[in-house]
Amino acid sequence: MTFEQKILDRIKSRHLKPLPKGYFKARNVALWGVVGVFVASLGVGVGMIIYTVRSTDLSVLARLELSASQTLLFSFPVFWILACAVIAAIAFINLRRTRNGYRVSARQFVIISTLVAIGVGSLVYALNVAQYLSRVASDAIPLYNTITAPNTNVWLDPDHGLLSGVIRTRDSDESFYVRDSEAVLWHVTGNDITMPDGYEMQSGERIKIIGKRTGDDTFTAREVYPWIVQ
């Protein structure tokens, strides 16, 4: 029996039928769609990297009593860099499965996807989409807050020791209430709180606080500063 005959007999025995041409066209379109989605996601990841880097004040970071490993981790947007690497790998794998994907080299893919990702990422950052996504991730992913840097530009990240808001009532410099931008009323306490020389807190004033979250709406302060330092 010839090789060709063996193949024909196997096709008959397994009742194999040729797939319609439309199936391969639809599969190719779907794969390109998946590649597009992942490249767009890569752009969002780049936008998050831009946002994380620009919203982190390293001078404040050094004063939050972080360990050496936390300081190193928070100095780089590790979470989003790893996410971008995974997304890029998945996009490239799916690209190679398209009809003409084999013609695109890894180098060409890196150059093209990087340019697209930077463009999309810049737009995501400029439209404040990155800030919104960061807040959603912070609420929905418990691990996120432990591996991403505090948002020191916004100064509202109590899990990382940063709080800001308007003083509503003030019993003393060691016990007062602050309402943040999300309408949460915080009871702030502390002993020997560090403040700028000659500074006195006033009700109705907006302030920045460095300390530690101790409950759902309680915070222990170590340092307090006016929102605009003179």
Keywords:
230 residues; alpha+beta; OB fold (Dihydrolipoamide Acetyltransferase, E2P); 2 domains; 5-stranded mixed beta barrel; 49% helix
Give the helix/strand layout.
Elements: H1 3-13, H2 21-54, H3 58-61, H4 68-75, H5 78-96, H6 106-126, H7 129-140, H8 144-147, E1 162-172, E2 175-179, E3 185-189, E4 206-213, E5 218-226
Parallel strand pairs: 3-5
Antiparallel strand pairs: 1-2, 1-4, 2-3, 4-5
Written overview of the protein:
The chain folds into two domains: 3-147, no CATH class; 158-226, Nucleic acid-binding proteins (OB fold (Dihydrolipoamide Acetyltransferase, E2P), Beta Barrel), CATH 2.40.50.140. Strands 1-2-3-5-4 form a five-stranded mixed barrel. Helix 2 runs antiparallel to helix 5 (78-96). With 230 residues, the protein is α+β, with helices and mostly antiparallel strands. Helices cover 49% and strands 17% of the residues.
Any idea what the radius of gyration is? 27 Å
Strand order of the largest sheet: 1-2-3-5-4
Order of helical and strand elements: HHHHHHHHEEEEE
| Share of residues in strands | 15-25%
Number of E-type strands: 5
Distance between the termini: 94 Å
Overall geometry: elongated
Secondary structural class: alpha+beta
Q: What's the story with the biggest beta sheet?
A: 5 strands, mixed, barrel
What is the domain total for the residues?
Answer: 2
- Mean pLDDT reading: 88
Instruction: Give the oligomeric state.
Output: single chain
Helix-residue proportion: 40-55%
Unreliable runs, pLDDT <50, ≥5 residues?
none
How many DSSP H or I helices? Answer: 8
